[in-house]
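To close the chapter, one final illustration. This time we ask the reader to focus less on the individual chains and more on the assembly as a whole: which components sit near each other, and how the overall shape emerges from the parts.
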Amino acid sequence: SQQGEEDPQALSIQEGENATMNCSYKTSINNLQWYRQNSGRGLVHLILIRSNEREKHSGRLRVTLDTSKKSSSLLITASRAADTASYFCATDANRGSTLGRLYFGRGTQLTVWP
Amino acid sequence: IAGITQAPTSQILAAGRRMTLRCTQDMRHNAMYWYRQDLGLGLRLIHYSNTAGTTGKGEVPDGYSVSRANTDDFPLTLASAVPSQTSVYFCASISEETYEQYFGPGTRLTVT
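The assembled structure is written out below.
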């Protein structure tokens, strides 16, 4: 399977601290995406990084991609209680007929304490 | 409506019964997906559709069927529900411009 795997499974921090989550995958990819899921809700897209990119920023989010190590990291700076959610990485290794098929990891549960 | 809607929000279903989960999008996206989410297993793809009139099998298709009669609707049917199909089901579509997937709010299904 080329499913992404997040690490750690759970992360608990104080408001204002930075949160770093990692993702490893097994096969070559076209892009890697990070999604957020609040409890009881659907997933929301956060950021996409293409295989030829090494780093990408969006607000307080910073994503890195190391294709040689088949790994990615998501950094949330100056975390807030509202960042409490599950975070998933998803890999797109689409080669062929399935447009945009993503393989999701099991997620990291982030808890930010006020 | 804006984005993707799913119905019902939740359902308790007796084993052996037939059930259709509805999904509708208003973004005119060509490709759509059905996932199931189980604790500890993340999201797994059940079926997908690249465009109206076509469908394909995902990672865990057994016991499920889909149809795509038009661009907006992508229903998922359980012909004869079993307890192992207890899960949260998410419908999604993809923007061909950004490759971002948009998810519905999910249907929580319990098969007893």
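The longest strand of chain A covers residues 43-50. Chain A has a mean pLDDT of 91. With these observations in hand, you are ready for the problems at the end of the chapter.
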